[in-house]
Amino acid sequence: MTPTADLSPVTVIGLGPMGRAMAARLIAAGHPVTVWNRTPSRAADLVAAGATLAPTPMTAVAASDLTIFSLTDYQAMYDILGPTLADDEHRDVLAGRVIVNLSSDTPELSRVASDWAAKHGARFLTGGVMVPAPVVGTPDAYVFYSGPEDVFETHEPVLRLIGEPRYLGVDPGLAQLFYQAYLDVFLSTLSSLLHATALVTSAGVPAAEFLPGALTFLAGVPAMIGDGAEETARRLEAGEHPGDLSTVLMMGATADHILRTSEQAGVDLELPRAVKSHYERAVAAGHGTSDWTALYEVIKARD
Fold first, then answer.
1. Contacts of residue 192, Cβ cutoff 8 Å, sequence gap at least 6
2. Please, which pLDDT band fits residue 248 given cuts at 50, 70 and 90?
3. Is the pLDDT of residue 2 over 70?
4. How far apart are CA 103 and CA 93, in angstroms?
5. Would you tell me the crossing angle of helices 174-201 and 270-284 to the nearest 10 degrees?
6. Contacts for 150-158 with beta carbons within 8 Å, 24 or more apart?
7. Contact, 85 vs 91, CB < 8 A?
8. DSSP at 302
9. Which end of the chain offers a freer environment for a tag, N or C, measured as fewer CB atoms within 10 Å?
10. Interatomic CA distance for residues 75 and 82, integer angstroms
11. Which residues contact residue 202 at a Cβ distance below 8 angstroms, ignoring those fewer than 6 apart?
12. Residue 96 Rama label (left phi>0; alpha psi -120 to 50; beta)
């Protein structure tokens, strides 16, 4: 597609798999795209598709009102821009521009980055891409955003090309909070799948005989919870744990069995120990006959 006047320029800094996928999607939609990466060769395919490779980060930022960062963490943004911003000739390059940082980091560091951008005259959106690079730009892609609502609304059409934009509010930390919380579920699940596979293969059973059924089992977890997400969330917030089905004592006994089975199989014990500790602490806190959701009372932040 040939760029037209109504398609604004966009800069992408950071050309790992995610950055390349986002830049490619923007190019395909017709946006003039400028890219920069520490290793210029990563831009070869994008340049062949129509992108402009900037010689320096400042040249890249200056090429567009909107710059999207896709880096390892927020420190990388400072490492890339900081030295040049200290130069009198380029100290105002961010003034009036918008930074959308889609790198991973903590909510608090997202807030610090927003303040840093404001000191340099820029507006800042935090984002978290919730799909792997091959899914970027497809109907299954979605991205959390937080920061100034007017900035989000202005650039929403461009951001939508990456994935469905889900705006969470003005607090710059919210997008990273949701991003990290979702990945908390994801990473814990991956570890549990590998741990469970190790249990089975310790008995000489091929992984292929276990994993398909385990994944089907995993997909059925929402139905097993039974009350639905909204009702479960309401009970967590209200501190209601009726204990008429799966009690802490009952589930804790299973957690103990998993730990002992792991020990006997010679499989790593850190994950089952952590899970068992939640049940032990919930019982010690008087929640033994409560529903398994009472674990929330020993996991949540203290007031």
1. 271
2. very high
3. no
4. 21
5. 110
6. 151/98, 151/123, 151/124, 151/125, 152/125, 154/98, 155/66, 155/98, 155/100, 155/125, 158/8, 158/10, 158/26, 158/31, 158/66
7. yes
8. P
9. C
10. 10
11. 265, 266, 267
12. left
Cβ neighbors of 185 (< 8 A, separation 6 or more) are none
Closest CA to 159 of 135, 125, 182: 125
Distance (Å, rounded) from C-alpha 16 to C-alpha 39?
10
Q: What distance in Å separates the CA atoms of residue 65 and residue 46, rounded to the nearest whole number?
A: 20
Q: What is the arithmetic mean of pLDDT over 296-301? A: 95
Do the strands 10-13 and 123-129 form a parallel or antiparallel pair, or are they unpaired? unpaired
Q: Within 10 Å of residue 192's Cβ, how many Cβ atoms? A: 15
Token representation of residue 271: 């994950």
Segment 170-181 shows an average pLDDT of 98
User: At how many degrees (to 10) do helices 107-119 and 174-201 cross?
Assistant: 150
| Averaged pLDDT of the chain | 94
* C-alpha distance across the termini of the chain, in Å: 55
C-beta of residue 117 within 8 angstroms of C-beta of residue 148: no
243 is written with which tokens? 């204990």
State the Cα–Cα distance between residues 294 and 280, nearest whole angstrom: 12
Residue found under tokens 């979605």: 142
Mean pLDDT of the region 183-187: 97
Average pLDDT over residues 191-217: 97
Helices (H) and strands (E) in the chain, counts: 13, 8
Tokens for 224, please give them.
């097993």
